[in-house]
Design brief:
The protein is α+β, with helices and mostly antiparallel strands. The protein has four domains: 1-49; 172-279, Beta-Lactamase, CATH 3.30.450.20; 291-452, Reverse transcriptase/Diguanylate cyclase domain (Alpha-Beta Plaits), CATH 3.30.70.270; 478-715, TIM Barrel. The protein is 47% helix and 23% strand. The chain is built from 26 helices and 26 strands. Strands 18-19-21-22-23-24-25-26 form an eight-stranded mixed beta barrel, surrounded by four helices. α19 runs parallel beside α21 (601-614). The radius of gyration is 55 Å and the shape is rod-shaped. Bound molecules: ligand C2E and calcium ion (2 copies).
């Protein structure tokens, strides 16, 4: 339109010039001139008011005319017509402009071109669109150009932005789509087209939004996503899409409702993100945290969960749930000697064996390191659970093949049963109980099973506290030694005393040895304590000997723990202590329990032999409790046997106990061993022991263990006569204490 006007205007100018040369008809010319003048002013007025830049330039680009609007667009008020500077074309676009223009000039056709100029005033770069038409002379040669210029900066950049956004949309891996209010697709980006299996625009337009959802998500799309988007403008959520191959993918989706100015909904857009990879990753993470990578067994969390469920079910069905915590004994040794790779292999082999023991409803888990846990949801009682543990242990008795070596591994089991404590246990407390029992099994020598009994937990706490206090007991001088005499059953005289340690705890008072001696053994503290007792007892023995002018030395018996017996420095220690106090070796006796001797029978024999060479006397303590046979006694280089209190206890009532005491005494006599009866509390026992051929007796009947001062007085009175009489000879029975 503008172009047409301008072309007409330019044509008049050209015509006027032509007519100016012709003078053939002045009259007509005058009329025509007037008409033209009127027309020109009208056209000029038009040209100056149109909202486009109008120009008329010669073939060199010199201006013949520019309207004010063009001046405004170019920011070039100074240029006068005829100035060839023309508009300053933005340099990068110059070549394009010249090429197009030259082509048009040659073809004598219109030019339509968009390019950039640099404004004269502020130097800003603007986009302009120019439409121009060549004016031809009679020969058909181009004489000049007329045209119009519009500033299209706004539109051009908007379109460029749009194109850029379009490119981004196409490139994004998210699925972007537009859907009309009837649910038909109007746009799908490349990712969406690929997912929905469409390529052409027609195929996109044929898609219905509802069809891309998995059947399970359709109700959600219609009932929730659309209404929410309609109401608040946007909906976000997770749904499943249905793919052309029938598979479903989890996605997160944003649906936006776009409105027209009048408020009605124009269309919907959606951005959809594939969650399948993320889901797989999450699942992998969960898997990794719940399952042990090495053995593939579930971990603690899975087991606790299953245990809780089993315990609930067990309550209803009145059976019990058993938890067996299985610790591999000395597994660290396998790692240390064969390397970690072999350790790992071992764990897998153990897993296989344990699996073979587990029933179909049992759950085997790994609790890290060398501890496994077997959950047995239905046991009938303790015996049942113990039988399972036994079965596991026998399964382990076959060696494992490790790098061509045969390796044995035993298992210690801690067992806890639900509902056995009377209290309502939780999965966690049951596991803690099983753990306490496992510790006890390990303490008691491993390769065995222990059932949790209710007070283990309290005991465990108590033990820990005691162990802590025991550390400082020696340096704080909290130990004392008391003595209990041993009396000759024939003469009634004291032949020796047994040294027994006492712990005076600053807060708890007297702590019985039965409580702290085993702890001291486990912690290794027994070495120091034992050394101190030996030294104290020998010092005391020296003192008593010095006080006794008849030369009859008092024998002192000191208890030796298994740990001490295994100590290679023991013999030197005993020898130097004897020397230090000037006590004859024959005045010292050492008591070693039968179970300590059994622990390391070979080592014990060697240690005992060396001690005996020193001249020290040796006794087997607590005889009869350690499953040792009488014939075993023959091999031991000992001098005395202390018959355990439990046999003495039953002497008066139980014929079997009499038989055992008789057998021990008879055997001892044959081996030339002294027999000492422990825990004699009454005269009946004393009489029975004498009859059975026992040599010495010790017990409350004479006196409880006493401090040295008391024993000194006792020894004093012993010199003036026997401590007791049997009352057989009409003398009333007596006792001291
Ligand atoms: P044990 O060597 O068998 O000591 C005898 C225990 O029986 C002592 O308990 C003693 O007090 C107690 N007893 C003595 N006569 C009677 C009686 O007529 N009736 C009853 N019911 N008991 C009687 P104690 O002193 O509590 O010692 C317990 C255990 O602690 C000892 O048993 C011993 O194995 C250990 N022990 C004590 N002192 C030491 C020590 O210095 N070193 C080591 N390694 N162990 C010690
Ligand atoms: Ca003893
Ligand atoms: Ca004993």
């Amino acid at each position: 339109m503008i172009t047409i006007t301008v072309v007409a205007f330019a044509a008049v100018i050209v015509l006027a010039a032509v007519l100016g040369v012709s003078r053939r008809d002045r009259r007509r010319l005058a009329a025509t001139t007037a008409m033209l003048a009127e027309s020109e002013s009208r056209l000029r007025m038009m040209a100056e008011t149109v909202p486009a830049g109008i120009f008329h330039v010669d073939t060199e680009g010199r201006r013949l005319y520019v309207n004010p609007k063009l001046t405004e667009i170019t920011g070039d008020p100074t240029v006068a017509p005829g100035d060839a500077r023309a508009w300053l074309v933005y340099e990068p676009d110059m070549a394009l402009l010249q090429r197009e223009w030259r082509a048009a000039a040659e073809a004598k056709t219109d030019v339509h071109i968009t390019f950039r100029i640099r404004r004269m005033d502020d130097g800003s770069v603007r986009w302009v669109h120019v439409d121009a038409r060549p004016l031809l002379d009679a020969d058909g040669e181009v004489t000049s150009w007329v045209g119009s210029t519009v500033d299209v900066t706004e539109e051009t950049t908007a379109i460029a932005d749009l194109r850029r956004f379009g490119e981004i949309l196409e490139a994004t891996p998210d699925l972007v789509a537009m859907v009309d209010t009837k649910g038909a697709f109007t746009y799908a980006n490349a990712a969406a087209r690929a997912r929905f299996g469409v390529t052409t625009d027609e195929e996109v337009l044929a898609l219905q939004a509802i069809d891309v959802y998995a059947p399970s998500s359709r109700a959600r799309f219609i009932g929730e996503a659309l209404p929410t988007a309609n109401k608040v403008g946007v909906w976000t959520g997770e749904v499943d899409l249905l793919l052309p191959d029938g598979s479903e993918v989890p996605v997160s989706q944003v649906v936006v409702a776009h409105r027209r100015p009048d408020g009605s909904i124009d269309y919907y857009s959606s951005i959809t993100r594939d969650l399948s990879e993320q889901r797989a990753f999450e699942e992998q993470l969960v898997q990794a945290s719940l399952y042990d990578a090495l053995t593939g067994l579930p971990g603690r969390a899975v087991l606790v969960d299953a245990l809780g469920t089993s315990m609930e079910a067990a309550l209803e069905q009145s059976h019990q749930v058993a938890v067996l915590l299985l610790g591999l004994d000395h597994f660290k040794l396998v790692n240390d000697s064969f390397g970690h790779a072999s350790g790992d292999l071992m764990l897998r082999l153990v897993t296989d064996r344990l699996k073979s023991v587990a029933g179909p409803t049992d759950l085997l888990a790994r609790f890290g390191g060398d501890v496994f846990c077997l959950l047995v949801p239905g046991v009938t009682g303790e015996a049942d659970a113990l039988a399972i543990a036994d079965h596991i242990n026998s399964t382990m008795s076959t060696p494992f093949q490790l790098d061509g070596d045969e390796v044995f591994v035993s298992v210690s089991a801690g067992i806890a049963l639900s509902g056995s404590g009377g209290t309502l246990a939780t999965a966690e407390t049951l596991l803690r109980d099983a753990d306490a029992a496992l510790h006890r099994a390990k303490d008691r020598g491993r390769a065995r099973s222990e059932l949790f009994v209710e007070d283990y937990r309290a005991t465990a706490v108590h033990r820990l506290r005691t162990a802590n206090d025991l550390h400082r007991a020696l340096t704080e001088h909290e130990f004392r030694v008391v003595y209990q005499p041993e009396v000759d059953l024939r003469t009634g005289h004291v032949t020796g005393v047994e040294a027994l340690v006492r712990w005076h705890h600053p807060e708890r008072g007297l702590v019985p040895p039965a409580e702290f001696i085993p702890l001291a053994e486990q912690t290794g503290l027994i070495a120091g304590i034992g050394e101190w007792v030996l030294d104290t007892a020998l010092a005391q023995a020296a003192a008593w000997s010095a006080a006794r002018h008849d030369g009859a030395a008092v024998a002192v018996w000191v208890n030796l723990s298994a740990r001490q017996l295994g100590d290679p420095g023991l013999v030197d220690l005993v020898a130097s202590s004897l020397r230090r106090h000037g006590v004859e070796a024959s005045q010292l006796g050492l008591e070693i329990t039968e179970s300590a001797l059994l622990e390391d029978a070979e080592g014990a024999v060697t240690a005992l032999s060396s001690l005996r060479e020193l001249g020290v006397r040796l006794a087997v303590d607590d005889f009869g409790t350690g499953y040792s046979s009488l014939s075993y006694l023959k091999r031991l280089p000992v001098d005395a046997v202390k018959i355990d209190r439990s046999f003495v206890d039953g002497l008066a009532v139980d014929g079997d106990d009499s038989a055992i005491v008789a057998a021990v005494a008879g055997m001892a006599r044959a081996l030339r061993l002294t027999t000492i009866a422990e825990g004699v509390e009454n005269l009946d026992q004393l009489r029975a022991l004498r009859r059975l051929g026992c040599d010495l007796a010790q017990g409350y009947f004479f006196t409880t263990p006493q401090p040295p001062s008391h024993i000194s007085r006792l020894l004093e009175s012993d010199r003036s006569g026997p401590l007791f009489s049997y009352g057989d000879e009409g003398v009333p029975p007596q006792r001291v204490g």
